[in-house]
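In response to reviewer comment 3 from the previous cycle, which asked for concrete evidence that the modeling workflow produces usable outputs, we include below a single protein chain processed end to end. The sequence was submitted unchanged, and the resulting structure tokens are shown without manual editing.
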Amino acid sequence: MTETIDTTDSATQWISPSLWLLGATREAGVSTLEQFWSFTADSEGSWPPGDDRERVSPYVVIVARDSFKSLTAAQNLALAHQRGEIGAGSELLGLITVASAPTLDKPIRQHRDVVGGAFEQSWHIGWHRSLLSASVDRLPRWHPLAADATAPNPALPTDIHTVGIALTNAVHARIPALFTGQVAS
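The workflow returned the following structure tokens.
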């Protein structure tokens, strides 16, 4: 059973991220993406409580590595969410797949395409060899409200920048329906 994120500690001034990153498996790459995108947070395997929209963002993307195990776990999470078994009140915006190698075997690519069909949207982060040895706390941060948010940043891989913009747009498109309980189309 998947737990929900505990936000009841009133002693701290906690601010919800705009978007939760839910790793399909432990090696999905969530901590790296969370460091790149300042508007996200690692949900640590939990779904946000969808009944507290004034305090906690209900928006979630599942992050999966390009492997059979991770992609299948992502598909299972999406299907369970669609059936209402997990993540009540949370809005699943899509799937982010993260390359696990410089090239992708055809069966895994085909599986990724099939799994992507269980999601409203999907995005892909390519292979970045430099991230294998990078210190996560030294990675550049991108914020959608920065003055140069849409300008190319040589320190930020292009696909990570592009997906960050797309995620910001996906969240932005849902805001009009945030308090209605309806999913924006």
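The longest strand covers residues 91-98. We consider this sufficient to address the reviewer's concern, and the full set will be provided in the supplementary archive.
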